[in-house]
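Same chain as my last thread, 282 residues:
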Amino acid sequence: KVIVSDFEFPTNAQIWHAQEPRGARVVHVPRTADGYIPLAEFAKAIDERTQLVAVTHVCFRNGAKLDIAGIVRLARAQGAKVLLDCYQSVGSLDIDVKALDVDFAAGGMLKYLLGTAGIGFLYVRDAFVKSLLPTNSGWFAQENIAAMDITANRPSPTARRFEAGTPAVVNSYAAEAGLKFLLEVGTPAVEKRVYSLTRRCMTRLEEIGWPSVTPAQDERRGATVAVPSRDSAQLCAELMKRDIVTSHRDDNARASFHFYNNEDDVEAFIAAMKQLRGKFAP
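reply #2:
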């Protein structure tokens, strides 16, 4: 039994549904009427049959952040492992996988880590590095890469066993440059800045009569502010004409913030939204 939530990016759910022919039973934890998924909903789904809880940190649709520490506690009580998809949060929030006590964490360099597509990462708890044997392997996963041995699979005793073939070399340089920026600034400072800007943005949206659907509490949101619209695609196109880069998912326009943004960026977004409210607000 694998638990996912209704906040997942498609890939994170599709991967587990792809295991159903092998006997996996995939259970979705639904959102409640207010659009959030509280711990009580996870408690209903996680039981003694659960092998893995694979959940996102921040929802790509509405910017809501799940209570990962609480979900881990529920999983531990039933003997289940936890895989955290932190793609939508890492780089914008201060994340400590050991403090969260997750068993696995995966993400990519494309978004808030300021890198590019085609390169990602996997964290595996030390206790599972040697006991888990990947069935998807490659020469960079082998104990001796230079052996060029085609007679057997001899995975590295280290976390390198979870690698595959030749890495995306060019992408690695972009990833390194992005990480350098973030390490210089520090993720605690980044998180503080992100919460300040998103809080200001949400308050200002309330003031112009076009409230966000993203949870207001800091502990329940990430770097994205989602705004409902009758035509979110065209709204984003109109914002782009004003040099404001957003994106849309479902019926929401998404404005995401990072440490390099400032209050003027928020006010420019609000001014544009105020102008466009009559045409695009629900």
